[in-house]
Amino acid sequence: MVIAKKSIKLIAILIFVMLPFFAIASDGGENKEFNASELINDHIGDSHEFHIADWHGHPISLYLPVILWTENGLTVFSSSKFHHDNSGEHVVEVNGQEFVRHNEVIYYADKYETLSEEDKGAFNFEARPLDFSITKLVFSMLMSALILFLLFTAVARSYKNNKQAPKGLAGFMEPLVTFVRDDIAIPNIGEKKYAKYMPYLLTIFFFIWINNLIGLIPFFPFSSNLTGNIFFTFVLSFITFFITSFNGNKDYWKHILTPPVPKALYPIMVPIEIIGIFTKPFALMIRLFANITAGHIIILSLISLIFIFKSVFIAPVSGAFVLFMSILEMLVAALQAYVFTLLSALFIGQAVAEHDHH
Amino acid sequence: MNFTAPESLIFWTTIIFVIFFFLLKKFAWKPILVAVKSREESINNALKSAEKAKLEMQNLQADNQKLLQEARLERESMFKEARDIKVKMIEDAKGEAQDQANKIIEQAQAAIESEKKAAIAELKSQVANLSIEIAEKVMRAELSSNDKQLKLVESMLGETKFN
């Protein structure tokens, strides 16, 4: 029995490891030259449709809604209308407006024609409508929020009926919750004030963790690189910044605006302290983004080796490395969630700490 | 990296995160944290009361030990007392018996003495009577003839010296 279980597990792991190979194997097609950086960019980036697999050269995708705020107001249509075109050639006409998509950025068709290659980009708001589409990452975020919500409401429910030692799901989740409380919140914020920030710390901890893990699972409906997206990490770190700044007490602001140094040093110290308010969440943003994206890039690069060398014999080697990296990334997934939560708690703790005056 | 649209992700992340946060806060974190905390308290209380019960138990045991010790001592003293009483009773009985025996012996001796005296007295009187009878008979026999009477007078006279 045990042996059978073990071999089933092994096969399952092998399939999971091999899946991206199949996906990529069908990606390039016969005639196209394999381009590793393009492939990696595709995988770590965002898109308007969720690519599932290819079948006989035809991509199978989940078409997500495109929501545009155009010059004529709100426009909603399915991303299937682009017919997988990402080169700006296929023009989509909706409500009398024409759009094209180039590298997952949707432009007004007429303005796109006049753009030079350098002007194309997500930050060219002149040539494109505001895009509030439910992209792959947004879809993934909704899914993770739903999973977490169902998971933790189930845990909360189990406490209603079970007043004794936690069992099942609650028994598994409770140590994590108490870990956040006892090892992150209380040591950094303090016994008196931690309770107010517990919901936030728990939410970011589990939200980041589950999205890190979702990013590691290499098939639909997972595999999205949400926590490795700098806009996502920006919002999270901005919320930490927001909480820190709005809960900062008199001591916190006094320390920034009149630091305990000789007055002559104020011209240097005050700007440094003020910049410090922003660098802390900035570091949070970059740390999570860089760690997760780097992990994805390494795994994808290792897989790409097979196609660069065009040899099957590289597959076991790169498979072994991918397995190793995947396990390492699972550790990193938990670690980065922990670090983000820990630093958020630390910053909040600094802002609400009551000094005995030094 | 394809930055599809920064505003899309920022917008949706903010919306989803804020809603998600408040939903979780209300339906998950509050009940969970309250339950965990109350259970922790109840566990602490239970441990404390167990500790107290243990102490009480120890006290009780000590009490029991003490009681047992006392009972043992009492039993021992009772034994000792009983033994003493027994010895004393035997001694008393012995003494009384001795006295009684002595008394009886004394009485017996006295009785024997008086019986003896009486017997001797009787014997004396009988001997006296018998001697008189014998003397009478002897006298009679001795003085039955004149010769004899004369002889006697003669011997008597012979014995008597005339001064």
From TrEMBL, chain A:
It is a multi-pass membrane protein. The keyword Transmembrane helix applies. One of its GO terms (cellular component) is proton-transporting ATP synthase complex. It comes from the Bacteria. InterPro entries: ATP_synth_F0_asu (IPR000568), ATP_synth_F0_asu_bact/mt (IPR045083), F0_ATP_A_sf (IPR035908). Keywords: ATP synthesis, Cell membrane, CF(0), Hydrogen ion transport, Ion transport, Membrane, Transmembrane, Transmembrane helix, Transport. It holds the Pfam family ATP-synt_A. The chain crosses the membrane at residues 137-156, 200-220, 226-243, 264-282, 288-309, 321-348. This is ATP synthase subunit a. It comes from Confluentibacter flavum. GO terms for molecular function: proton-transporting ATP synthase activity, rotational mechanism. Key component of the proton channel; it plays a direct role in the translocation of protons across the membrane. Belongs to the ATPase A chain family. It is found in: Cell membrane; Membrane.
From TrEMBL, chain B:
Pfam families: ATP-synt_B. F(1)F(0) ATP synthase produces ATP from ADP in the presence of a proton or sodium gradient. F-type ATPases consist of two structural domains, F(1) containing the extramembraneous catalytic core and F(0) containing the membrane proton channel, linked together by a central stalk and a peripheral stalk. During catalysis, ATP synthesis in the catalytic domain of F(1) is coupled via a rotary mechanism of the central stalk subunits to proton translocation. Component of the F(0) channel, it forms part of the peripheral stalk, linking F(1) to F(0). The b'-subunit is a diverged and duplicated form of b found in plants and photosynthetic bacteria. The gene is atpF. It comes from Confluentibacter flavum. CDD domains: ATP-synt_Fo_b. One of its GO terms (molecular function) is proton-transporting ATPase activity, rotational mechanism. Keywords: ATP synthesis, Cell membrane, CF(0), Coiled coil, Hydrogen ion transport, Ion transport, Membrane, Transmembrane, Transmembrane helix, Transport. Its main location: membrane. It is a single-pass membrane protein. It comes from the Bacteria. GO terms for cellular component: endomembrane system; plasma membrane; proton-transporting ATP synthase complex. This is ATP synthase subunit b. Residues 43-140 form a coiled coil. SUPFAM superfamilies: F1F0 ATP synthase subunit B, membrane domain. InterPro entries: ATP_synth_B-like_membr_sf, ATP_synth_b/b'su_bac/chlpt, ATP_synth_F0_bsu_bac, ATP_synthase_B_chain. F-type ATPases have 2 components, F(1) - the catalytic core - and F(0) - the membrane proton channel. F(1) has five subunits: alpha(3), beta(3), gamma(1), delta(1), epsilon(1). F(0) has four main subunits: a(1), b(2) and c(10-14). The alpha and beta chains form an alternating ring which encloses part of the gamma chain. F(1) is attached to F(0) by a central stalk formed by the gamma and epsilon chains, while a peripheral stalk is formed by the delta and b chains. F-type ATPases have 2 components, F(1) - the catalytic core - and F(0) - the membrane proton channel. F(1) has five subunits: alpha(3), beta(3), gamma(1), delta(1), epsilon(1). F(0) has three main subunits: a(1), b(2) and c(10-14). The alpha and beta chains form an alternating ring which encloses part of the gamma chain. F(1) is attached to F(0) by a central stalk formed by the gamma and epsilon chains, while a peripheral stalk is formed by the delta and b chains. The chain crosses the membrane at residues 6-24. It is found in: Cell membrane; Endomembrane system. Belongs to the ATPase B chain family.
